[in-house]
Write a structure and sequence with these properties.
It is a single chain. A seven-stranded mixed β-sheet has the order 1-7-6-2-5-4-3. Helix content is 26%, strand content 32%. The chain is of the alpha/beta class. Strand 6 (83-89), helix 3 and strand 7 form a beta-alpha-beta unit. The chain is globular, with a radius of gyration of 13 Å. The chain has a single domain, classed as P-loop containing nucleotide triphosphate hydrolases (Rossmann fold, 3-Layer(aba) Sandwich). The mean pLDDT is 87.
Length: 120
């Protein structure tokens, strides 16, 4: 059985990166998850996160797990796949199928779901 859903609020990209870095650090260092077991999913491709260092981790569309890189992709591209830990970001999208898309993203998590949502 998995853990309860974890929610974090942020205000802007800088705070998103800070909180995401803290969450990733906690997952890998404190909880012992491998970087290959963590995926960041967005409703649309999050250019602000691609190829960025977030804390001690690099966020990539095609990560090298031996280099502390974390997969970041869209929910659409990750459909049908699973990960032990899923971190949903960009939850504020207002596309017509927004709720269904969030459900698909949330259902990709096998053990732990973390949602980072904007304050507005």
């Amino acid at each position: 059985m998995g853990q309860d859903v974890e929610f974090h609020n942020y205000n802007g990209d800088a705070q998103l990166k800070k909180i995401l870095g803290q969450v990733l650090h906690h997952l890998v260092i404190n909880e012992g998850f491998a970087t290959k077991d963590i995926v960041i999913l967005t409703t649309t491709r999050k250019q602000a996160l691609q190829n960025q260092m977030v804390g001690q981790f690099r966020i990539k569309a095609e990560p090298d797990i031996s280099r502390k890189e974390i997969l970041c992709n869209t929910i659409y591209h990750f459909k049908g796949l699973e990960s032990k830990v899923v971190i949903l970001v960009e939850t504020e999208s207002q596309t017509p199928n927004h709720q269904q898309l969030l459900y698909v993203g949330a259902s990709r998590a096998r053990h732990h779901l973390i949602i980072l949502q904007p304050l507005s």
